[in-house]
Specification:
Blueprint lengths: L19 H11 L4 H18 L3 H17 L2 H16 L5 H18 L2
Helix pairs in contact: 1-2, 1-3, 2-3, 3-5, 4-5
């Protein structure tokens, strides 16, 4: 795991290695309620990888959960992302700025995860 800090408090946990085991352990610490979704996604990715004889579904799994962990390990970042997603979902105002910020947050999370 690589340690990265944001401000005086830092993230809840270090960024884990990009393995299924490390990502599962990280999710268990920062968002235990999401373990069933992770398990289901991993099962589907494994099944699809076997059926297609391709690692692409497993790569997509790792990418998705690495970004999730990179976002959720910073509570303020996670809260801001949820707020932006609510604004877009509500459809009450022009979503252009919110979508741009969501892209920036996700891009920063991808970079932090080394993707």
């Amino acid at each position: 795991m690589s340690a990265q800090h944001d401000g005086p408090y830092g993230p809840l946990i270090p960024m884990p290695d990009l393995t299924t085991e490390a990502l599962r352990a990280a999710v268990a610490k920062i968002a235990p309620s999401r373990i069933p979704a992770l398990t289901q996604h991993l099962f589907e990715a494994t099944t699809n990888a076997q059926q297609t004889q391709s690692l692409a579904p497993l790569r997509a799994f790792v990418h998705s959960w690495a970004v999730f962990v990179a976002i959720e390990r910073h509570p303020e970042r996670a809260a801001r992302l949820r707020e932006l997603e609510r604004l877009v979902d509500a459809g009450e105002q022009d979503p252009t700025k919110a979508i741009a910020e969501i892209r920036r947050l996700r891009g920063a999370a991808e970079a932090e995860a080394g993707l």
